[in-house]
Amino acid sequence: MTELTYRASPVPIRDDLAAAHRRAWRRIAGPGTWWDGPTRVAIAAETRNAPACTLCRRRKEALSPNAVAGTHDSLGALPEIVVEVIHRVRTDASRLTESWYREALDNGLSDGEYVETVGIVATMIAIDSFTHAMGLPTHPLPEPLPGEPSRHRPAGAKPGLAWVPTIAPEDLTDAEPEIYLNRSAANIHRALSLVPDEVAGFFDLDDVQYLPDALLRDFGNEHRDITHAQIELLAARVSAINQCVY
Amino acid sequence: MALLRASGEHTGDAYDFQSVNGEAVDRSGVPHADLLIDYAEAVTGDDPDRLIRARTAIAETLGPAALVDSAGVAAIFQAVVRIADATGIPLEEYKAEITEDVREELGINDFPSVRA
Questions:
Q1: Is the dihedral of CA A81, A87, A64, A52 positive or negative?
Q2: Closest chain B C-alpha to A173 CA, distance in angstroms
Q3: Using one digit for the tens of pLDDT, what is the confidence trace for A190-231?
């Protein structure tokens, strides 16, 4: 597999950041919990394709996305319901509703498949937005790796906190990675916990692009070339632009 | 928002949260807020020339390493917001309480994701 690299970047990219992006690329290529490698790479490709979708553009402009019917402009490799999830999360996430999520399940997607899809979309956005922000070309997608998904559903996952079932720290078993080790059980960390590997994977990126959880309130020390306040201002402005309360 | 407030409380700085809405940026109290806000808007927007200008301003004023860190933060939050919105994960009660005034002032409680 060709490794993701930032060697051609005119601005030096931190080694830890480049290494985390390489790990993410390997994760996307390999089998996950519910999707195999080819499907995960197809989800990554569809995430990149979504902004060019005419239906998504028309829905984004509409007062309500439900007012616009049609078919997505997709790459054709994934079932329509998976494309719908990828495109809506990529292009119009702030207007998603629980009833829309339930409809995705009614249309054949399992909750685990949904959560894993969201994790892949988020990973792609984190990396592609970084290259976009830096003025660098997007990385070629990885070649899919063979192998079967683990199909492991955490026994302790429960409904109630969010639309999707989540797992509390006390309900983790030895069968799951220690996703709350070195990080709190803040709701955002629990959001993808129905698929623990997606939590571990996404927050591996979050640790290097934002800050590791243990350093978030270490206001007496600066760990980046911008200050805590500058980091939080940037984060808050991006969240506000996306109309996200989190 | 909670961490921006906490950061200011630690350093004794009073930040004007209107800058989170892209307003009153010059009064925010955060050093180089104007550049950072412009960069956040350029990264999330669709004007390539604006992004080039914003990126150049950050690199020339704060340095290339600061540009990398700024790009990392902006990019990861483009993803974090989608995880939150797509899973319906709520804001923790304690965070909601300590940011209640700011969320009301900035109109954040009117965001579609709050009403969903």
A1: negative
A2: 22
A3: 999 999 999 999 999 999 999 999 999 999 999 999 999 999
Q: What is the value of ipTM here, to two decimals?
A: 0.97
Query: Phi first, then psi: what are they for A46, rounded to 5°?
Result: -70, -30
Asked whether the beta carbons of residue B73 and residue A226 sit closer than 8 angstroms, the reply is yes
**CB nearest B76 (choices: A132, A210, A237):** A210
Q: Is the pLDDT of residue B115 over 60?
A: no
| Min distance A174 CA to chain B CA atoms (Å) | 25
Question: Model pTM greater than 0.80?
Answer: yes
Q: Which conformational region is residue A74 in: left (phi greater than 0), alpha (psi within -120 to 50 degrees), or beta? A: beta
Contact B78/A242, CB-based, under 8 Å? yes
Q: Which residues of B touch A134 (CB under 8 A)?
A: 55, 67-68, 71
How do the domains of chain B map onto residue ranges?
2-110
Q: Which of A94, A206, A220 sits opposite B76 (nearest CB)?
A: A206
Q: Within a 10 A sphere around the Cβ of B75, how many other Cβ atoms? A: 25
Q: What is the pLDDT of residue B107?
A: 75
